[in-house]
């Protein structure tokens, strides 16, 4: 605040830069005001103005809207200067008190709840109530909407689970048509590979990929993307393993749509002499034990206390009960050394991956005596996808799990794995896998719920060599917020999760990375109306 006296002492100017009092002039008439009176006036103003300034600042800070005029400040400052009490604070305190009472109280049974906010406003206009009744109405409406939202979320998760577990009509049509083609078309039954190329199936100078699936369309994408992304496609040998019902259709597809210059072999589980009940007794029990089948194929809601679980936990439980987890086709990877006794090193691929870069360098990675080259999933930019430890897969309240495993141990990913089969054959990985499967069956599946990875995490313990995460990007089947730039850079992208790219529930912005390898001009694809999204 500044005081300016004119040279003649006939006027005094009071100026301020605080935004509230910009300019005030006092003109002095020498004949009517003495210097003593003027001096006293200045002293009084100098004493009062700081208090006015402080009150103005407080009012502005406390207010919702800033005052920009003296009229506004007068209305705001008046009650304070005159000693009147502002009732707004008391009203807020009283309202909080009522809300606390309503929070702990019971909603009256005869209270009629409006269906919408508009109905609430109309109802309150037509039927004036006290504030407490109004608060009960608001609470009742919010609790009702929360219940409906929760029920809707669980219904959505159930529908998504059924969609993920089912076979799309187009893919089923494609399998049936190709199976029919196998029986009626000699070209669809021709030997794969041709006799002159059979020796290459066990030639370790080639790059051998193993793919286990009953999804013909998915298999075609994996093979096509691998061949098109390779710098040495003539060195690629694919060993496609499928089940008995899909074998004819799978064979027809690759016989009629060769992946030249790569070599493709199609074999059904029934064609492996080694896969007998004596060699896989635990997996035979998995497929045939009635209690296990009911767990995976039965009613997933019956007996479940939905009020005691979150939608996210419920979604995890549903995914863990996918019927694929009791299929021998899904466990076949644990028998690779026995099924391919002449091979030394292979790359195993899941059917929900897409290959975007040349994978030849994988055969140059030195695993340092380990069996399994895999990407670890306990560290990475995506905290949801890349934050998996053993505690995420196992029940550590079970005494055997607590005794033998560390909850903080880093997990690794299935889907794209380099297997050193020579090193594997020197271990007891298969026996360990069977042993823990048997224990989990005895415990009524209380040690873990989710499929093939948990027993593999135990069986391969101490046999895993971490590889660079850029080789294998996960989560495209459940992480909607996947970074697109990271997807473009990854060598292998993995649609693990329920939202597969061939399903309607797949994420639209991630689907093109998969559909670009689907041959939509193929007659079987067109006739079964498998349309590009």
Structure description:
This protein is an alpha/beta fold and 533 residues long. The protein has helices at residues 35-62, 70-81, 87-104, 117-126, 131-165, 169-184, 216-229, 244-256, 281-288, 290-297, 311-320, 328-331, 336-339, 399-404, 421-424, 429-442, 453-459, 484-489, 512-515, 523-527, and strands at 2-5, 11-15, 23-27, 207-212, 236-242, 263-268, 345-349, 353-355, 372-374, 416-420, 464-466, 492-494. The protein has a seven-stranded mixed sheet. It has a three-stranded antiparallel sheet with strand order 1-2-3, with no helix packed on it. Strands 8-12 form a two-stranded antiparallel sheet. The protein is elongated and about 120 Å long. Residues 18-24 have low confidence and may be disordered. Belongs to the glycosyltransferase 8 family.
